[in-house]
């Protein structure tokens, strides 16, 4: 094995880490840049691959390129197959780097790349079969791997999904990334379930190091679950069914997407009803490969379940997924609840303000006299818009936690056994209802979903449909009966029918 040397490199900037083949550099950066007195608009941590090759969750770093992360609150690992030299340095905030160390316990990375190779073989088979199929119906029934990653919370599920998506897109595949984790959604704001078509352009080191996918690259389909702390099983099932339907429609019309398959992240609820929801989801999304991350009990439960199903179904094994067990990375450490809370807040802020980008508005004179600090200055990419609407113009619904029993309904009212019920918030009446909306994150319904709901009268038609976007309640002025809403762009809202959950956000 050739040792990686640094003799031919310029002096290090900050810490220099020399990684031998199959080692990874793990580092953690604290939140709290503002608390430490520095401007939050400056870079917090930067790294540069000086030599060799390395990747962040499957996304390759360019040599000699400085990657600057303008936010704290990250825990990442840079892995090398063949050895490399990485410089890592703090920006405006001294002490931001909590810990950095090199580890050679990277068997999980090898297992991930082997899994990718097997999935790629399935994609090749699917592409060939689609190409050779003579009629449309046969073509439509062929699909690449439909993968779902399961495991308990904080075992590295999102990381594995990101890695598999990065490896697939690097080879020109366009898999759908499905994130069914409302607690920590990588594609959209917390409290959502989402699907995004992925391409190589959507996989970047900066986005993989923090949260979300780069704006302007993909158009995710997002449904609002309304909570980042608990899952409403009936609503979850309804939303998974709707997403499954949309995924199928897309696959029916896009052969490349069909051959590339889907990669699904789940939410870590693996016991009791959570386990039942995993099985339900696997069936609804026609999962063909189940990856169980570091959990022997779950692996055993799933293997026995599908063996039994296979016995019952005889020859029809089309709906029985292959269950594989993968090791979890030793680098994953549990994130304190305050850290997770700040990650969620950052994800909402990113929705309204976009990424922090380099400030190119400085004049030539300013550029001439640029200090080290101003060279790192960043500004938000988007300018959110504050609109004021009369309270009487908007309709805000929330999901009620249980269906009303028919005996409690007024005599003339339609009886229902649907467990997904919505209630309209009384904006004219109780002040506690109105007060509960302060700083709430509201999902803006699509006009088509509003029309469907008005026609059917079924709440599920509204809350299981994809949303047009989100806005946040800045304040409600009771004296003027106005609601002030922050939205990511100017102009009228697509509809004034909104859904509220239990997620709040304020700057
Ligand atoms: N090899 C590693 N070394 C250090 N940190 C890592 C490594 N792999 C992942 N992490 C970090 O560990 C944290 C938890 O990982 P991840 O989000 O993938 O877990 P999860 O199972 O999806 O969690 P949750 O169920 O809470 O969403 C993340 O901050 C991730 O960046």
UniProtKB/TrEMBL annotation:
It comes from the Eukaryota. Keywords: ATP-binding, mRNA processing, Nucleotide-binding, Nucleus. One of its GO terms (cellular component) is mRNA cleavage factor complex. It is found in: Nucleus. Residues 19-125 form the Clp1 N-terminal domain. GO terms for biological process: mRNA 3'-end processing; tRNA splicing, via endonucleolytic cleavage and ligation. This is Protein CLP1 homolog.
């Amino acid at each position: 094995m050739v040792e990686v040397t640094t003799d031919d490199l310029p002096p290090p900037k900050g810490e220099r880490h020399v990684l031998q083949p199959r080692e990874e550099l793990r580092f953690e950066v604290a939140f709290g840049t503002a608390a430490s007195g520095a401007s939050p608009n400056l870079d917090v941590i930067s790294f540069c691959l000086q030599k060799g090759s390395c990747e962040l969750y499957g996304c390759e770093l360019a040599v000699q390129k400085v990657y600057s992360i303008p936010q704290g609150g990250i825990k990442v690992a840079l892995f090398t197959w063949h050895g490399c030299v990485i410089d890592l340095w703090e920006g405006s905030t001294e002490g931001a780097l909590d810990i950095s160390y090199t580890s050679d316990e990277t068997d999980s990375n090898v297992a991930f790349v082997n899994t990718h190779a097997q999935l790629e073989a399935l994609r090749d088979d699917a592409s060939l079969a689609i190409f050779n199929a003579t009629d449309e119906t046969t073509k439509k029934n062929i699909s690449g791997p439909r993968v779902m990653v399961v495991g308990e919370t904080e075992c590295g599920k999102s990381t594995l999904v990101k890695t598999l998506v990065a490896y697939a897109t690097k080879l020109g595949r366009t898999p759908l990334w499905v994130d069914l984790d409302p607690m920590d959604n990588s594609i959209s704001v917390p409290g959502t379930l989402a699907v995004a078509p992925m391409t190589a352009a959507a996989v970047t080191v900066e986005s993989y190091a923090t949260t979300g996918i780069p704006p302007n690259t993909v158009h995710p389909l997002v449904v609002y679950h309304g909570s980042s702390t608990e899952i409403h099983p009936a609503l979850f099932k309804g939303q998974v069914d709707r997403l499954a339907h949309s995924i199928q429609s897309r696959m029916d019309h896009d052969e490349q997407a069909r051959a590339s398959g889907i990669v699904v992240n789940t939410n870590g609820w693996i016991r009791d009803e959570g386990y039942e929801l995993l099985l339900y989801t696997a069936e609804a999304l026609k999962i063909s490969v189940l990856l169980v991350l570091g959990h022997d009990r779950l692996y055993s439960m799933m293997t026995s379940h599908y063996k039994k199903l296979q016995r019952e179904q005889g020859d029809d094994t089309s709906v029985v997924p292959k269950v594989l067990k993968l090791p979890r990375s030793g680098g994953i450490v549990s994130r304190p609840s305050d850290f997770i809370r700040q990650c969620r807040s950052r994800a909402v802020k990113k929705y309204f303000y976009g990424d922090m980008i380099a400030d190119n508005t400085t004049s030539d004179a300013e550029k001439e006299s640029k200090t080290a600090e101003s060279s790192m200055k960043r500004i938000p990419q988007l300018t959110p818009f504050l609109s004021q609407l009369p309270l009487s113009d908007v309709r805000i619904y929330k999901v009620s936690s249980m269906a009303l029993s028919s005996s409690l309904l007024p005599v003339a009212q339609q009886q229902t056994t649907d467990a997904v019920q919505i209630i309209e918030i009384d904006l004219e009446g109780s002040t506690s209802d109105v007060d509960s909306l302060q700083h709430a994150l509201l999902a803006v319904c699509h006009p088509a979903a509003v029309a469907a709901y008005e026609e059917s009268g079924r709440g599920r038609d509204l809350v299981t449909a994809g949303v047009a976007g989100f806005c946040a309640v800045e304040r409600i002025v009771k004296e003027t009966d106005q609601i002030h809403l922050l939205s990511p762009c100017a102009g009228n809202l697509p509809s004034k029918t909104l859904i509220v959950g239990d997620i709040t956000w304020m700057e």
